[in-house]
Amino acid sequence: MQKKLESHFLLLFLFFVSSSLGFPWSQNKQFNQAKNYEGSSDLIDLQYHMGPVLASPINLYIIWYGHWNQNHQATIRDFLYSLSSSSPYPSVADWWRTVRLYTDQTGSNITGSIVISGEFYDSSYSHGGYLSRLAIQSVIKTAMNSHPRPLPLNPHNGLYLVLTSADVQVQDFCRAVCGFHYFTFPTVVGVTVPYAWVGYSGTQCPGQCAYPFAWSKYSGKPPPVANGGNNIMKAPNGDAGVDGMISVIAHELAEVSSNPLVNAWYAGDDPTSPTEIADLCLGVYGTGGGGGYTGEVYRDYWGDGYNVNGVKGRRFLVQWVWNPAKRRCFGPNALD
Ligand SMILES: *[C@@H]1O[C@H](CO)[C@@H](O)[C@H](O)[C@H]1NC(C)=O
Q1: What tens digit of pLDDT does each residue of 253-278 get?
Q2: Which segment of 116-130, 172-186, 215-229 scores lowest on mean pLDDT?
Q3: In a domain, 263, yes or no
Q4: Which residues line ligand 1 (CB under 6 A)?
Q5: Is residue 186 in some structural domain?
Q6: Which residues, 6+ apart, have CB-to-CB distance to 61 below 8 Å?
């Protein structure tokens, strides 16, 4: 009984600190962590805490909240399709292979199959232009209760991705986080399902959440690039906000898959502030990355930066994640 109570308190606690992606450049601590972690490190105590990972093929349900640009939606969909499609090496699916190295206690790996199984257009801003963290769960509930064409309630292998448009404010968005993942409460949604939220940052805070395609005006300088220049990296799909969002979506998908109930893979002793597999590699996109330097990435003819290929000839820039076998941050564009 007491145990149960404790775990309820723990859940409540966890809710308020639910796993979030902060800013890659702004927090020196994170900067330095990323820098240190690109090289192999035995200091990282990433541990498995016995909970489930997303091992079954994932049915992904997208909720487009607010007013969305169709080109932006197409870019995001193509990124999501690329996760389980084959594209020229190094591909988005090759990047996901690092995530697949994580297993649960039965030895099942994270799935390689992520299928967009439904989309819901909440263009009437059902919960207003400002969303608290908890309200994101209500947005999911609304999509499931909609008539016609509700999103299915899929507690077996559903993953819900809430994407908010440029004009939507979200609690802590642009001040502390660019995205977060967590799980729904039965009292709000009816069941416990994992979900993630990511906001479009192109107009509200590209300097915070669309790094390295934009640079904060408060930081004084753009990110250094390999040739010693200071030019801002150009976005491979033509929009800093959406290209920045892609990397945040990648970050959240990696973490929700390896820590869906916040009791599986994370570092640190404190489950109220877990450091997860993508947190360890914030701001690292290539070999040598960290400390405000993206690392070695590719540049196309126009100066667009990218590190992986996707479907339809698209290119994306996604941050690296922690590789548990190599014990360092890794991506398929690694030079070593
Ligand atoms: C599953 O995870 C194990 C342990 O990390 C790894 O050795 C194996 O290659 C993974 N399998 C796949 C299909 O990724």
Answers
A1: 999 999 999 999 999 988 888 999 99
A2: 215-229
A3: yes
A4: 100-101, 103, 109, 324-325
A5: yes
A6: 116, 117, 118, 119, 120, 143, 151, 152, 154, 158, 159, 160, 161
